[in-house]
Amino acid sequence: MRHSTVRSHLAIGALLGCCIAGNAVAASRGEGLAQQWCSQCHAVSPGQQSPNPKAPTFSAIAAEPSATDYSLRVFLRTTHATMPNFKIDPDDIDDLVAYIRSLKPTP
Q: Which domain holds residue 14?
């Protein structure tokens, strides 16, 4: 029984490690997409000012309590009068969301 518990803990650790590494890759890819598509209006990196003063920084978006994975995905799939009408691939949305969420301040 003890060996199965150790194996279970190792399996859970490996799974978490893969998820964390996967999120880091997605966030890195999302940062590149944000630089390419969003940086004309938004500050996409921490500490920057948005080129368009009306466009919130990605850090400010990430700090909003309402900026959940779900709400960000819905937002990125919805057209907005004040933003270009991008047609974003679902995998790219996942990467952008991973990047924005990676900017969320830790308590």
A: 2-102
